[in-house]
Amino acid sequence: MFVAYCRTDEGESVSVDKDDRQRHLPAGRKAQLAAYVAETGQVTVSELAERFGVSIDTVRRDLDQLAADGSLVRTYGGAVSLSTVSRTTDRAVDQRLTVQEQEKEKIAALAAALVEDGSTIMINGGTTTLALARNLGQHRDLTVATNNLLLPGALPPSAVRDIYVFGGAVRALTLATIGPVSFRATTGADLDISCDLALIGVGAVSADAGYTTSNLAEAAMMQEMISRAARVAILADSSKFGRRLFAQVSELGAADYLITDTAPPPDLRDALAASGVELLTPTAGGSVPASNDRPASPGPGRSGR
User: Fold this and answer.
1) Which of 211, 213, 230 is nearest to 302 (CA)?
2) Cβ atoms of 135 and 151 closer than 8 Å
3) Domain at 3-85: CATH architecture
4) pLDDT at 99
5) How far is CA 185 from CA 79, 146, 178, 188, 191, in A?
6) Number of neighbouring beta carbons within 10 Å of residue 264
7) Do the Cβ atoms of 146 and 164 come closer than 8 Å?
8) How confident is the model at residue 28 (pLDDT cuts 50, 70, 90)?
9) What's the chain's average pLDDT?
10) Which residues pair with 65 in a beta bridge?
11) Among candidate residues 293, 244, 284, 243, the one with its CA nearest the CA of residue 260
12) What are the residue boundaries of the structural domains of the chain, listed by start?
């Protein structure tokens, strides 16, 4: 073991081993910090500050630098490893429920504030939208259409008037149906449907690719939900920023709002602003515009955007 000796102001000699010296040098500390995040999967700033014996501000700077270097993904209040992000893209619902849990709850609370009593909403599959459903307890007289098989059980009974589940094949991994965004009359004809607000959880958000997801059929279904909505809110936590998955759901401008847990990086923030997308985050004070603060986009086809 390498041991270094130094002399204190009082003239006493003390020893410092190599691991301890590395932990307090910026380069060595960041390397150990990155390794710890990779091993643990998900960490908080306070946890890292205590473990490495440095200030919270120092940890934040280290995490920001490591995120810029592509070593991890920065989240609100902490970080997640790259392997955790890639695994959660296509993991079973029960495994994804505990990932970014606090961030999803913050997003859900903001999204719920966009929903008006008596309105019709469409919600897709996923754990962020499931958190949204649990946050609708103060609402009344909602009509909800979804492909999320867990959603009907998560919705507070007092909040809903009617719940409709889109048919199709069931994707067991996500517990969501895959099929057309439509319902048939008893005559066999498709009924023309639309909604006041579509709340869509996506797998990734980037300035160049827009909103993407890992499954082609799910992407097509999200596209159709968006096309049938007067307003569209995209729900995505910060671990999904700057990434691109297999299938594009839409360009950034297809949404009216992006609801997330913290401000996105500058390139994405600028692209959202240029596309006319309103960014809603808890750090922005949690203010949510009323639906009459901006003109509603048309439903099917959304030709007005």
Assistant:
1) 230
2) no
3) Orthogonal Bundle (1.10)
4) 52
5) 49, 18, 20, 5, 6
6) 22
7) yes
8) confident
9) 82
10) none
11) 284
12) 3-85, 93-293
pLDDT of residue 189: 87
Q: Are 258 and 279 in contact (CB under 8 A)?
A: yes
CB atoms within 10 A of CB 243: 18
Under the banding of pLDDT at 50, 70 and 90, the label for residue 284 is low
Tokens of 185: 């009359």
Q: Bin 242: left if φ > 0, else alpha if -120 < ψ < 50, else beta.
A: left
Tell me: the pLDDT tens digits for 207-266? 999 999 988 899 999 999 999 999 999 999 988 898 888 899 999 999 999 999 999 999
Place of tokens 């010296």: 21
Strands laid side by side in the 229-235 sheet? 160-165, 142-146, 120-123, 195-201, 229-235, 257-259, 278-280
User: Distance between CA 184 and CA 297 in Å, rounded?
Assistant: 25
Q: Which CATH architecture has domain 93-293?
A: 3-Layer(aba) Sandwich (3.40)
Place of tokens 């913290």: 262
